[in-house]
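[Automated response] Your request has been received and processed.

Submitted sequence:
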Amino acid sequence: MTLYLVQHGEAMPEAEDPARPLSGRGREQVERVGRHGAAVRLLVAEIRHSGKLRARQTAEILARHLLPARGVREADGMAPDDDPGKAAAAVEAAAEPLMLVGHLPHLGRLASSLLVGDPDREIVRFRNGGIVCLAKAGTGWRLQWILTPELVVEHP
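Generated structure:
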């Protein structure tokens, strides 16, 4: 089982727009990562997001590129300050490659819970629009790779 954790793309400041949609730069970050994911044939069965506008927009952009068989949907337990236990249980129940699009500190706490069993240890540093890939290894999880928007170089 493969799990992809994605921090939403860069969002507008709350003072400019309280709904905090993706900024132009944030959209560009996610588009670039999505195109790269499609080019390397990243397989994702479903994309779940927190329901916040910036996470939903990020999930929708990625879905246009990655074409998940079961599409995109909102999931409970993925807000910034939610306990990572609920998301961890959903991940453990998944049988096919899953992508979760959310926020900090939740994603960091979820990754740490899965990798070392301690949500309070910062193991992974997330970047806006980046993907962290974890893989099930026996009874635990392993970090496979991290892709940040800055690492994606597109050629004309």
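Summary generated for your ticket: The CA atoms of residues 50 and 75 lie 6 Å apart. Helices lie at 24-39, 53-66, 84-93, 106-116.
If you did not submit this request, please reply to this message.
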